[in-house]
Design brief:
alpha/beta; Rossmann fold; GMP Synthetase, Chain A, domain 3; 3 domains; six-stranded mixed β-sheet
């Protein structure tokens, strides 16, 4: 049974995202004292006392009906209202009612869904006049509330429970969390949501889509989902929050994360854009596979390489999507230039998959998902200790470590200590003296001989224990 859904709506800058974060119990939505911060609607699991529900945060409602961005945001909000079982309309009690509040209230009164009116910012006496004005909206008694301070939660609880089914069945599924949040495993180590599943359950692949503004990230998400879930348009920088959506492709569960476009740090001067970039970085940090979207008409520039290096440093698997491929005249030259740039500037993830596609027309999306699953499986690969030591012996015989101070360095033993990304430990006689060039030789050999393209490979050197150390002569 579908979980009871609550949509939070209202005009811009009344505190919807603050209320969303309060009910979600986490700082998920970007909150800033600027109208129109939220644009796409965001989902999360909400909780108020024993109540459990699905929560939707929406963009500020604008009375616009053309092809502009505010009009498209309004359409998204109306879709969320249609999907919700209950609507929380939030008004700003300190600012009082506005014509836009009255317009929105008329729309909600015509609908069939129940509505609860929340008069936010009622801490202190400054909100009393606005609270009294809110009765004129015809949506019942307003709840005096403060999303920032948590005042009025008991009244909100009573209003919600009145509209919820009497017996809400327990949800046996794994709780859905936003990207960047962790849970604690049995050994006390923090792990990604989706990693604590039964052995026979398919793991949820966290797939973050990143890139510069206007590269087509939201268009790609909409094409994969088959619905207009994300706001798109010719305007650069529409997406501000990292929006996670659960999806399934050929029986494999995927959590798609659409992120804000990342410009060069020197060009970012607004606090809101800084918060958006931080949200994107958090999405990279907790993704499994990161799809870097490039505009094929613009090629790969320094900022794209910076993002790719961030992905590698975080140890995530990487796929490069060359979007707007249908608009490229000389395809052979464009692809050759991209591969040459990757070879020279991103050697630490040699063999990264490159997929040419058109997100707008839906071309080659199956090839993209095939590359995502392949690189995800590689990222999770485990190699037996016996295989590794046979490989190490052959490598040392073919190309032994260099002499240091007239003495040969000895690499004695090797094992894989973790996956995601593949990480190996080698015990050596004097690990601190092994040249960096030889360490890179080991990494490249591992990637080539065990077929691990496109994922970071980590090799750590450890000093073997001397059995005679500390013993008396």
């Amino acid at each position: 049974m579908t979980r009871f859904t609550i949509a939070i709506v209202g005009r811009p800058n009344v505190g919807k995202s603050t209320l969303f974060n309060r009910l979600a119990g986490k700082q998920l939505a970007i909150v800033e004292d600027t109208p129109g911060v939220t644009r796409d609607w965001r989902e999360a699991a909400g909780q108020l006392g024993p109540l459990r529900f699905r929560l939707i945060d929406t963009a500020g409602y604008e009375d616009s009906y053309d092809d502009s961005l505010p009009a498209r945001m309004r359409q998204q909000t109306e879709r969320a209202i249609e999907e919700a079982d209950l609507t929380l309309m939030v008004v700003d009690a300190r600012a009082g009612l506005t014509p836009l509040d009255e317009t929105f209230a008329r729309l909600l009164r015509k609908g069939s869904r129940p509505v609860v009116l929340v008069a936010n910012k009622c801490e202190g006496r400054a909100g009393e006049p606005g609270l009294l004005e809110a009765y004129a909206l015809g949506l019942g008694d307003p709840i005096p509330f403060s999303a920032q301070h948590g005042i009025g939660l008991s009244d909100l609880y009573d209003a919600i429970v009145e509209h919820m089914p009497e017996e809400e069945p327990e949800d046996e599924e794994q709780p859905q969390t936003e990207p960047g949040l962790t849970v604690t495993g049995e050994d006390g180590e923090e792990v990604l949501d989706g990693d604590l599943l039964p052995d026979d359950a398919p793991r949820i692949i966290q797939m973050a889509i990143v890139g510069r503004p206007n590269a087509g990230k939201s268009t790609l998400v909409n094409r994969l989902l088959g619905v207009e879930r994300m706001l798109t348009g010719p305007e650069a920088g529409i997406t501000r929050d990292a929006i996670a959506t659960d999806w399934e492709y050929e029986g494999r569960p995927v959590r798609l994360v659409d992120t804000a476009g990342m410009r060069r740090k020197a060009r970012i001067d607004e606090k809101l854009e800084q918060l958006s970039v931080q949200d994107t970085l958090r999405s990279i940090r907790y993704a499994h596979v990161v799809v870097l979207m490039l505009d094929a008409e613009l090629g790969m520039d320094k900022q794209d390489l910076t993002i790719a290096r961030m992905v590698e440093e975080e140890g995530r698997a990487l796929v490069i999507a060359f979007n707007k491929w249908d608009a490229v005249a000389d395809k052979e030259t464009a692809l050759a230039d991209l591969r040459d740039r990757l070879e020279t500037s991103l050697s630490q993830v040699k063999g990264v998959p490159v997929v040419t596609l058109s997100a707008l027309k839906g071309r080659n999306l199956d090839r993209l998902m095939a590359a995502v699953f392949q690189v995800y499986d590689t990222w999770n690969r485990r190699i037996s200790t016996a295989q590794l030591n046979r490989w190490l012996a052959g490598l040392l015989e073919m190309h032994p470590p260099p002499l240091v101070a007239g003495r040969r360095l000895k690499l004695r033993y090797m094992t894989q200590i973790k996956t995601r990304p593949p990480t190996f430990a080698i015990w050596a006689s004097r690990p601190e003296e092994l040249p960096g060039s030889y360490q890179r030789y080991l990494v490249n050999g591992l990637r080539q001989d065990f077929d691990m393209p496109g994922v970071p490979v980590r090799v750590y050197l450890r000093k073997g224990r001397n059995p005679y150390a500390g013993k008396k002569k």
